């Protein structure tokens, strides 16, 4: 395989994108769980917001996995693999609505940190498609965190 990125760099980028994939999938699961279980006076607002967010995350996992495959590496795809790779913790039980929002803020911020950690490598490797993917993911996660954060402001 010769796409202008060294074998070593492709492996490192794929490993980093695998962490991003695991974070994204774990955040998808958490968001979907909260969508199903949210209660309280903000039920409708949160139920619909969580649905919008988990649908976006669901589409994103495919884009990330396909980029890993384009780089010539297998994409992780099991709960066990994701659990080893993700920096996002699962919810303990069913938290109150405000705690759900706080946990999702932290989840989106975690994905941002994971994405940002890859820029030096992808830029050094001239991997513009991965840089573009990371930029797009950052825009989505920063906006989602901001929207969620606004729900907790008084």
From TrEMBL:
GO terms for molecular function: ferric iron binding; oxidoreductase activity, acting on metal ions. CDD domains: DPS. PROSITE patterns: DPS_1, DPS_2. Residues 16-153 form the Ferritin/DPS domain. Belongs to the Dps family. This is DNA starvation/stationary phase protection protein. It comes from Crenobacter cavernae.
């Amino acid at each position: 395989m010769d796409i202008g990125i060294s074998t070593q760099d492709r492996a490192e980028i794929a490993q980093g994108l695998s962490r991003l994939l695991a974070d994204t999938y774990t955040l998808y699961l958490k968001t979907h769980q909260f969508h199903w279980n949210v209660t309280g006076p903000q039920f409708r607002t949160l139920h619909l917001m969580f649905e919008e967010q988990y649908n976006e995350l669901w589409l994103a996992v495919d884009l990330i996995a396909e980029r890993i495959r384009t780089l010539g590496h297998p994409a992780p795809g099991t709960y066990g693999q994701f659990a080893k790779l993700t920096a996002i913790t699962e919810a303990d039980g069913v938290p109150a609505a405000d705690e759900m929002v706080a946990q999702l803020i932290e989840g989106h911020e975690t994905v941002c940190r994971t994405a940002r950690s890859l820029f030096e490598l992808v830029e050094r490797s001239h991997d513009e498609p991965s840089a573009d993917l990371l930029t797009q993911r950052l825009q989505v996660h920063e906006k989602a965190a901001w929207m969620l954060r606004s729900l907790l402001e008084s």
